[in-house]
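Before relying on records like the one below, remember that each one covers exactly one chain. Contacts with other chains, cofactors or solvent are not represented anywhere in the record.
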Amino acid sequence: MMKLQIANDRDRKEAQNRERRRQCELERRSRIFNARNRKIGIDVRFLERQVEEKRAERDEQERKNLAFAQQMIKDSNLAVVLEAREREERRRIGLEINEYRYRYQRPEDRREYDLNDPEVLKKQLPPRASDDNPVGLSSAQKFEGEDLNYEERKKIMAEQKNAWLEQQVQERKAAEEERKKAEEAYMMAIKSRDARASELDQLERECRYRLGQANLRYNEALAAERKQIKQILKEQEEADNTAEMYNNLTSDMLTENPDVAKSALGKNRAIGFMYKGMNQEELKKFYAAQKEQMAANKAKRDAADKMEAEWQALSKSIQREVARQDILDQRQRREMAKQLMEENQLLAMQQKEKEKYFKEVVYNNTPTDEYYSQFNTTTR
């Protein structure tokens, strides 16, 4: 089997150092060979304008968020007021329902109250209290089959049945009327609540409209005042310009008086704003100096062009060297990738041979069911 070379910590550190130096060199090369950043630099005013625009955009967004939050708070307060009113109305209706139950639906008014009366034994009379022939307490009070109050009991039961039916009809009518009254009261409360909310909304819109009209009147007054001030300044400026034109037309400068340009500091000195021009001798000296300056500027331009050509040649040579180095690096990477692929293929082949060896030689004796059936057959 082929032994592969494994990289240790030292090799990895050297590779990391080479890569770091290579990245630093590339960054330095981009800084040095970028003529625009080297000569012009960064447009600071454009960046400041971008910062100002971002700040203005952020302030506008914050203002919108604040207005939205204030509107949410106002809506929440209105919702809380409406919810409190609805809760109070529900509580009042509940109290009225409880009062109605206390007055007209008491337990003792039920028709089956005599079956659930806790004091029924105290209210009972002796069995023969209604008989014309009462007997003593030690005597038999009632015999099997006796019904002394059958007729009266039958009459009372019929009357009680009729009274119950009438009471049920009256109770149903009263309950239906109370239900209708409660629904009408609830609907009136909802309508009043909605009317109040609409009134509050109308008041708020009216206040906003009045505030907008006041702002409009203030802005119109401010615009009129500014227009008046601008007109006054314009008239004043026109008057100043007219006076200045008249003064210039009547001045020594436009009348071309050469004596006014003479300075008191010397005969070769002249007052600049009154100076009208040079004579022939001064013009000759000026033209000669101008030719000398043109020659000097041409020499400077030739030197600058020569230096620029040298720099261009140097830059091209450096670029060629960089391109050649990149080609060498790409070639080395391809060779390394090819070598790594060959090593991986060799490792894959070795792995397949190893798996084949284990499968055919090491793991060829697979246990059968008979092998497992010999265990756990006795208690020992």
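The chain has a mean pLDDT of 81.
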